[in-house]
Amino acid sequence: MINSNVLVLNKSFLPIHITTVRRAFCLLYAGIAKAVDSQYKTFDYESWRQLSIEKNDETIGLVDRVIKVPRVILLLTYDRIPKHHVRFSRYNIFLRDKNTCQYCGRKFPRHELNIDHVIPRSQGGTSTWENVVCSCHECNRKKGGKTPEQAKMKLIAPPRKPAWTPPLHISLKEFMHKEWAPFLDFMVNVSYWNTELLPE
The domain containing residue 119 runs over which residues? Predict the structure, then answer.
């Protein structure tokens, strides 16, 4: 339990890191962080220690009592967002293209979009930022296994690797505590949307 995961937020409540319960308690005790409950209330170490324990709460034992395990902590002075590698994933491709077909320019719900290889794999195209775009089903069928030029279709803009970076990379193994849900922006289809796509 002492080495299990705790989500760390910056002072703007953005997820920036994952630490251990042991480290989280050190930060709480030192006054560097506060614990955050499911109602977004924050607690310093002393007020967290005084919380009553509910039946299903995770706890650890202290010398004189048990204390509830915080699953989310808030850093009181840290306001930056660490830079991370932008994952080449469906989620980030759709985010980059704003859920917009890059051929007809119309915006669609994600389930009505495909990922299209600008230069088809059958013609040596690779799965990279610069060769994949969102396309609607109709444009995808029209283009088929051709390049845009061969299909007489035009891209809205050439695809590029995004300049932004996600605030936090969380693997599925780490995604395990319900208390994290309000602070993470990819709750639906986490596996599908955030699995890194491999270049081919």
Answer: 90-143
User: What does the alpha-carbon distance between residue 165 and residue 67 come to, in Å, rounded to a whole number?
Assistant: 36
Of residues 56 and 199, which shows the higher confidence score?
A: 56
Q: Is residue 110 part of a domain?
A: yes
- 30/47 same-domain check: yes
Sign of the dihedral through C-alpha 118, 120, 124, 127: positive
> CA angle, corner 199, sides to 176 and 99, nearest 5?
65
pLDDT value, residue 191: 46
Residue type, 122: S
Q: Assess if residue 199 is contained within a domain.
A: no
161 domain residue, yes or no:
no
pLDDT of 4-30, one tens digit each? 889 999 888 888 888 999 999 999 999
